[in-house]
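A student in our group prepared the protein record below, which I am reviewing. Thanks in advance; the entry in question is below.
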Amino acid sequence: MVDEDNDVVMTEQPRERGRERRKGRGLRLGGRGESRQQALLNDEEEEEEEEGGNDRNVLQLFTPLRSVEGWIVLVSGVHEEAQEDDILTLFGAHGHINNLHLNLDRRTGFFKGYALIEYENFVEAQAAISGMNGTKLFFRTISVDWAFSTDPFKGRRSSSLAKPRHKAIS
């Protein structure tokens, strides 16, 4: 298009609403405060509505994965003043513990709040998970689950964003 001064006027074509790939930290896509992950979740919800299905209500089956050493259980939400002996006595009632790893904060010397417990048998590890999940230790509720599994994180909202954390070694 040409205006009165013989200048070429460029008109922008309306862009289709679709996914854009962008890089960078702290990228804001939508209005104030909408993060990139939230925008992706909103896009996923729109796609689910268009497809007519919602997979969130469907029970997802998963399988725990065995590590090289054994069956590893992740205990989170543990009080920072808990000791190794406290965890050994609680979880030792469910089976023989091969290894217990407590991560300590170097600065304070306190426990970081999670533990990795290794069992030899699947049955013992499953008994520890079912028996100890949701119980209280030092007045705090602990969460016990498999350290390695094919299920998505429980905190994630969309099944397509959740990928298996670890691959099984064959």
In short: The chain has three helices and six strands. The domain at 71-146 is CATH 3.30.70.330 (Alpha-Beta Plaits). Confidence is low (pLDDT under 50) at residues 53-60, 156-160.
